[in-house]
């Protein structure tokens, strides 16, 4: 059932992927062959306009799931609470390690499902989303290095990402 699928879903630590995974979790019900909630109609796998159906029904699902749905184990999505995000970028010479804990993520309610590409034979999907503004609040700890200059700090974080474009790529297996 859907709750089993979402019950094992885990967030990535990449902030860009956090948003896409959250939107994916709320939209997985729109394209799944599993039992759907009454407010999320299914798309027929034989529909010649399957991708358009996925986008239409997926966009309709976002406002339905934004406050969460305990029956399907969908958490409240705006704000979404995440214990910790970790980002590691770069090399030993130029790189950073950033952790943000006790995160509140705002802006997912404004996500727009732009397009979908579904390949049922290859069991592959690609979904494109736009989020006008995503805000992450929490407490940060950063360390890194730019050549010989060390970087370190900690404190309150308020990260705003404007005009965020996300492409979510997913391969699935039937079990």
Automatic annotation (TrEMBL):
Originating species: Graphocephala atropunctata
Give the residue range of the signal peptide.
none
Lineage, opening ranks: Eukaryota, Metazoa, Ecdysozoa, Arthropoda, Hexapoda
Q: What is this protein called?
A: Uncharacterized protein
Q: Which residues form a coiled coil?
A: none
Origin superkingdom = Eukaryota
Gene Ontology cellular-component terms listed: extracellular space
PANTHER family with a match to the protein in the record: CIRCADIAN CLOCK-CONTROLLED PROTEIN DAYWAKE-RELATED, PROTEIN TAKEOUT-LIKE PROTEIN
């Amino acid at each position: 059932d859907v709750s089993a699928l979402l019950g094992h879903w885990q967030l990535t630590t990449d902030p860009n992927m956090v948003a896409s995974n959250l939107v994916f979790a709320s939209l997985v019900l729109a394209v799944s062959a599993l039992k759907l909630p009454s407010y999320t109609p299914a798309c027929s796998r034989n529909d010649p306009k399957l991708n358009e159906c996925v986008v239409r029904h997926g966009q309709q699902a976002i406002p339905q799931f934004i406050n969460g749905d305990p029956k399907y184990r969908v958490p409240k999505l705006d704000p979404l609470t995440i214990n910790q995000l970790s980002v590691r970028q770069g090399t030993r010479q130029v790189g950073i390690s950033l952790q943000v804990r006790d995160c509140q993520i705002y802006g997912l309610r404004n996500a727009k499902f732009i397009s979908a590409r579904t390949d049922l034979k290859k069991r592959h999907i690609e979904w494109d989303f736009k989020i006008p503004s995503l805000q992450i609040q929490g407490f940060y700890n950063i360390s890194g290095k730019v050549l010989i200059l060390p970087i370190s700090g900690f404190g309150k974080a308020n990260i705003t990402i404007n005009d965020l474009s996300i492409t979510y790529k997913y391969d699935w297996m039937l079990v």
